[in-house]
Amino acid sequence: MKRLVFGAITALIIITSSAARADKPSGGTVYGVAFYNLENLFDTINNNGKFDLEFSPQGARQWDSAKYRLKINNLANAIANLVTESTPGDPAIVGIAEVENESVVRDLVEAEPLRSRRLGYVHHDSPDLRGIDVALLYDSTLFTLISYEPHFLYIPDNPEFRTRDQLCVTGLLGRDTLSVIVNHWPSRLGGQELSEPMRIAAAELTRHIADSLWACDPERAIIVMGDLNDDPADASCTRVLGGREDPYDVAPHAFLNPWMKIHASGRGTLTYRGQWNLFDQILVGGTLLPDNGASSLIYTGARIMDLDFIKQHGGRYDGMPWRTYAGGRFLEGYSDHFPTEIFLFAPRGQCQPALNNSHK
Questions:
Q1: How close are the terminal C-alpha atoms of the chain, in Å?
Q2: Angle at 51 between CA 46 and CA 56, to 5 degrees
Q3: Whole-number Å distance between alpha carbons of 201 and 97
Q4: CA-CA distance, 268 to 280, in Å (whole number)?
Q5: 340 pLDDT band (50/70/90 cuts)?
Q6: Are 297 and 176 in contact (CB under 8 A)?
Q7: What is the DSSP letter of 23?
Q8: N or C, which terminus of the chain has less Cβ within 10 Å?
Q9: Lowest-pLDDT range of 19-28, 124-133, 228-237, 264-273
Q10: Residue 93 forms beta bridges with which residues?
Q11: Number of H helices, E strands in the chain
């Protein structure tokens, strides 16, 4: 019975995922789990020397309080609108990337569009040279924080290399313990082929974190999310993480990658030289699939949340993300990435309100 329900819901949500709507399975609760690269959410203070100078009033971008506040409110409004018919409040969890420090995360959740949402957050300062980190926001009425742990990426052949730490956050969603590994893998600077070993190493670290969690708790629900700087069919996602596009090919301790089919259809979350990439992925651990039966949470679908108001309209960039800067001009936009979101269904009797909690 679970197999039939799962297949029907997946077909509906993934294949017709262009609209911000999800039909709600009856008899339970649907939780949204989202990811959003916020594109250089820096404050206005130059505290990282030359790496931070451009995001200051004296820098090339003339990054001042007015621009910062506009970006904060834009992003808060975008996150506040990551809603569907089945998740009318907000996502239970939102992973974010390209945030400079805890201060900007706090400003984001306290901005007017999100102020009433009672969002908690987890942030950790990474050793990245540009000073950008990942973080996780969560609805404290739906998700109860248990623990979090950052993981440093060490590459023996390049011991001085520094990038974003991977942040593993564990908590209760419904009645299940869920671990979310938030990533921002090394960029393609220098070209995809030259930089690929860095992302392969990042994927190996992610896989090690997941395997360690499953070794301690074989039924643990695990989600991997982030800006992976690779597409779903690239080696880091397939060969290393083991992502599969068919849910019936995914073992309990493996990953479903629903973005393979979406990217193959010509859609993505960012563009480069007119081509769509889908770097912003959320991979689903096999214990969240109904045939494996280990979790009371059931994965039901995925979509790119390409909301109309965060797109550019008209001209050569029509339909692409409305970014903050382009060609040295301040565009008053949101981000150069679209958010992504997956949906987890908890049947009636398997969901409960979270304890009122936050980490700030």
A1: 42
A2: 30
A3: 19
A4: 9
A5: very high
A6: yes
A7: P
A8: N
A9: 19-28
A10: 33, 138
A11: 6, 17
